[in-house]
Amino acid sequence: MKILLVNDDGLYAKGILTLAESLSKSHSVTVIAPDTERSGSSRSLTFHSALNYMQMAVSENFESYILNGTPADCTKFGIDTIMKGEKPDVVISGINNTCNIGTDIAYSGTVNAALEACMHGVYGIAVSYDCKDNDYTYVADFVANNLEFLIGLLPTDKNTIFNINFPCVPPQLKGVRFSTTGDRKYLDEYQYVEGSGYFITGYPVASEVNDGDTDVVLTEQGYATIAPVKLNFNDSALFEAIKGIKL
Questions:
Q1: pLDDT given for residue 206 in this prediction
Q2: How far apart are the two ends of the chain, measured CA to CA in Å?
Q3: Beta-carbon contacts of residue 227 (< 8 Å; ≥ 6 apart)
Q4: What's the rounded Cα separation, in Å, for the pair 156 and 153?
Q5: Which of 79, 173, 176, 186 is the most buried (most CB within 10 A)?
Q6: pLDDT tens, residue by residue, 46-98
Q7: Any bridge partners for residue 157, and if so which?
Q8: Which SS3 state, helix, strand or coil, does residue 64 take?
Q9: In a domain, 202, yes or no
Q10: What pTM does this model have?
Q11: pLDDT tier at 201 (50, 70, 90 boundaries)?
């Protein structure tokens, strides 16, 4: 398969390089990463400044580039320009160095770079691992060994991605579970730093709305999770309830 591999942590992040080496054993891999760390970019695109890219010599096993844009830019620009004429079979985003579970996905550059693939009729998978300084080989090999199986489970309309999250326990996992996306709220505040300005800080707080099938609960219990996330934003149930109302 032809794989476009992107992230939001930059080209030299351990997660993306480990995943690229693992995938390149059996597939053709092209890596496109932001030129700086771009966490929290959601699915923003660069509209008001020029995009430029540069090929980098990182490994003889795959081509790699940096782009002065967002993670979603890396997906879009990669498909439309760098890989023009050889459209990838799948876009894989990661391996991110913290989990992207629950409502984190609204802000996540990792998850939204995979969702951007849906806009171009390409399968998307996001991968995150909640262990910044650990070895990513276990997670990378899991993705490589199960990639074709997972793609086979995705709808052929390519409007849904898989959001994969590993807690910081491999290889002592309890297992891998398919999950729903849970609710993850944060206790945030803006702290002022003299001479710089305000910085947001915070930590996740418990939510009572999560059931046992959510990624939030399952990762806390020591499971890796695979959650289907759909591009379509429609609230179908509400639409059916209100569509007959006349204003």
A1: 66
A2: 52
A3: 101, 162, 163, 165, 178, 179, 180, 181, 215
A4: 9
A5: 79
A6: 999 999 999 999 999 999 999 999 999 999 999 999 999 899 999 999 999 99
A7: none
A8: strand
A9: no
A10: 0.93
A11: confident
**Structural domain of residue 56, as residue ranges?**
2-182+211-242
142 falls within a domain: yes
C-alpha pair distances (Å), 130 with each of 49, 69, 103, 236: 33, 25, 16, 33
**199 inside domain:** no
Residues 6+ apart with CB under 8 A from 31: 5, 6, 11, 16, 20, 58, 62, 63, 64, 65
Mean confidence (pLDDT) of the chain? 93
CA distances in angstroms from 165 to 34, 141, 182, 226, listed in the order given: 21, 14, 13, 7
CB 147 within 8 Å of CB 28: no
CATH classification of the domain holding 107: 3.40.1210.10
pLDDT, average across residues 177-206: 86
Instruction: Pull the structure tokens for residue 245.
Output: 């109302």
Q: What is Dmax (Cα atoms) for the chain?
A: 63
The answer as to whether 188 is a domain residue is: no
- Per the structure, the count of domains in the chain is 1
Give exposure, 48-71, as e/b (b: 16+ Cβ within 10 Å): eeeeebeeeebeeebbbbbbebbb
Q: Is the pLDDT of residue 171 over 80?
A: no
Three-state DSSP state, 202:
strand
Check: CB of residue 125 under 8 Å from CB of residue 159: no
Q: Is residue 70 within 8 Å of 41, Cβ to Cβ?
A: yes
Tell which residue, 90, 73, 70, has the closest CA to residue 82: 73
What's the pLDDT tens digit per position in 134-167?
A: 899 999 999 999 999 999 999 999 999 999 999 9
